[in-house]
Amino acid sequence: MHDPAAVPWLESLNALTGGLFLLTAFGLVALRQVYGCLRLYVIQSILLASSAFLLAALDHSWHLVAVGVLDASTKAIAVPWVFRRALHDEVQTRREITQVLNVPTALLLALALAIVAYLLAAPLVAAGGGRGVNVNLPVGLAGLFVGGLTAALRREAVPLFLGLLAMENSSFFAGIAVAPDLPLLAEVAIAFDVLILVLVVNVLTRAVHEHIGTTKVGALRTLRERETR
Fold it and tell me: Given a cut of 50, is residue 116 above it in pLDDT?
């Protein structure tokens, strides 16, 4: 049984974790350096694992403990290690100046998407659910929208993929509160799928960069059009 005095503290810590998680999603929109985006993704993954541990303490769920351990080991340790090992230093440190929108406009659009996400999540939160659903569901949905915006705005292949990984983090952030007893086998499969995707994308990105000297999506599309003529 929980100490009644400890429950508000755990819920407050989870709310703080959710706020920081959403800030990392906005940070991915604002940052123009690939390596900085990777570090923010690591922080976001640590916050996801922290929320899983806090909800595990509230719900006495060993499933959530396993989720936290998997997230911390694969997303906060293995994924950045693969990125650092597989990619050139030039790709990691290059400032990403080719973006569809400038930073202030992109942040305003991200804020609008976050507000829409909170409005959409309000009826679901009112319907009830597990502990933390009032925090994790709106934050996860907002992170999902903002991560999609990040992927849509990026012109470089690696930060675009980091936006997609941030969307996956956000869906998990909402899922650990909505469905805390998700079968562990599914969680393990998803974690290893993410790692395999990172390996494949890194190998392809490195090969493309070595052959044509850039990973800009527009340049890759132009190259394909020229080859098919």
Answer: yes
